[in-house]
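Obj: model holo form, ligand = guanosine-5'-triphosphate.
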Amino acid sequence: MISDALRQSLATCPTLPSLPAAVLKVIELARDPDVKLQPLVEALNHDPALTVRLISLANTVYYTLGGRPASTLREAVERLGLEMSVSLALGFSLARSYGNRARTKGLDLHKYWQRSLTSAIAARELARHVPNELDSDTIFTAALLQDIGMLALDAVEGPIYADTLGGNLQHDEISLRERIDLGADHTEIGAWLAATWGLSPLSCEWIRYSHDCPVNQQSLTGGECVMLSGRLADIWLAPDGHKTLAQLEPWLGDDTFRSELLGSIQEQLPIIAELFDVDAPDRIDPQQLLFESKQLLLERSLNLYERLKKQERELAQLRENNAKLSEAVRFDPLTRLFNRQYLMQLFESCFCEAQSDGSRLSLVFIDLDHFKQINDKHGHHFGDEVLRAFAKLLQGTSEPGTIVGRYGGEEFLAILKNRSHSEASAFADTLCAKLRDQPLVHHAGVPVFITASVGVVSLGDGDFSLPKEMIHIADQRMYLSKRQGRNRITAQ
Ligand SMILES: Nc1nc2c(ncn2[C@@H]2O[C@H](COP(=O)(O)OP(=O)(O)OP(=O)(O)O)[C@@H](O)[C@H]2O)c(=O)[nH]1
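Output (holo C-alpha cells):
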C-alpha cells in the first residue's frame, strides 16, 4: 500500500515521468474497443519525433518481412499493430523526456532502459513461444513499464532513493529495500502511474504483479510472461546469467525452447535498443549459458541428493537412538530382562485387568541366596555372570505369556497371567529344581550351584485392592523362605 504521504508527494511532484499530450491522447483513443486507425494516426502525427521512430521500427527486418518499406505513419501503425504502436510511442516519449544517461548517484538510467527494453522483448517473445494464445503487444507494454515506478521514486525521493539503491543490489533486493525504506515498492508506484496515464486496468495489474513468482509451469498466462521477463532480462544484465537461467528452469520448457527464446530475444535487442538510443546489452552465448545452467542444476541436484542421504543417515541414527532409549526405559542392561519400573507398569495393568474380569493372576518373587558371598568370593564380575545366567534360566523356564523381570539387585519377579496358585507354585518348583539339579555357572571350570528363596502369591490369596499389596505379600513370603533356611518356596 502506498502511504498517503508518498501518494501526496507523487501527485505534486513536478519531475514525475510524464507523457506528452499526443501520447496521452493516443492511449485514450486506444482504450476504445472500436478505435479507428485514422484519429490515432492523427494524434501521433502531432509528435514528429515519434512518427519518425515508429516508421523506422516498422521498417526493421523484424516487421518488414521482405515487404516494401512503410513510408507513412499510417502504414507503420498498420504494420506494428495498434497496441504495439501505442506501447512504443509511450516508451519513446518516456525515454526521451527522462533521458537515459548514466548518472553518478541514484538510478542508472542507461541500465534502467536496457532492462526495460530487454524485459519488453523477452515478455513478448515468451508470449509468442508459449502454446497459449496471448496478447503479446499488451504484454510488451506492461513489461516495458514494469519498472516505471523506479523513475517515479527517483523523481520524488531523489537522495533517499539513491541510498536505497546503493550497494549493487539484485533487482528483487531493490523491491525489498524500497518496501523497507519507502513503504512501497516500484511495482505499486508503477501501477499507480500507469493508471493515471489511462493505461488499461489489465496493463496496470500486470505491472503491479510483475515481480511476483509465476504459479503455472505448464501454460503461462500473460501476467506470468511479464513476471518472467525481468528475470529473463537479468540473463543479459546481471552477473552470472547462467544462475538466473537456472532459476527460470521450471518455466522455460526444454532446451530447444530455451535456446530459441534466448536467440530471438538476442536478435531483436540491437534493433529496439538503437531506436531508444540505448546501447544493446552485451551479447550472450545462449548455448554456453544453457550448458552452464545445466551444469549448475546438476551440481545442485547432486548436492541435494547428498543432503538427502545425510538426512536419511541422521534419521536412521535418530531412530536407532530412539530405539535404544526406549529399550533403556524398559530393560535392565545387565540381564536384558524387563527392569523394575517397567515390570511394575506391566504388573499394575495385569492386576487391574484381573480385578476387572475376574481372571487369575499369580506372582513369584525370587531372591538368590547368599549372593554377597558370590561377589566376595569370585568378584563382582563373576556375580554379574551369575545374574545373567539366572535370567536366562528364568526366561527358559517361563511359558510364553509369563512376564519375567529383574526387580532389584539379585531379586526377580515372574508375573503369571491366568495362572492359579498351584500353577505358580509348580513353576517355582521347576525353577528351584533346575537350580538344584545343575550348576548355574562354572568358575575356573568348577561348577557353581546357586539356590533361591521364593515367595508365591495369587490374587485369590487376599483381599488385595492395590498391586503393591500383592507384591508386598510375595516379598514377605520370600523372606519367610530366607528365614526358614533359604533354598525353598513359601506359598502360604
Ligand atoms: N555382581 C553384582 N552384584 C550385585 C548386583 N546388584 C546387587 N549386588 C549384590 O548383591 C548382594 C546382595 O547382598 P545381600 O542383600 O546381603 O543378600 P545376599 O548376600 O544374597 O544374602 P541373602 O539374600 O540373605 O541370602 C550385595 O553384595 C550387592 O552388592 C549386581 O548388579 N551385580
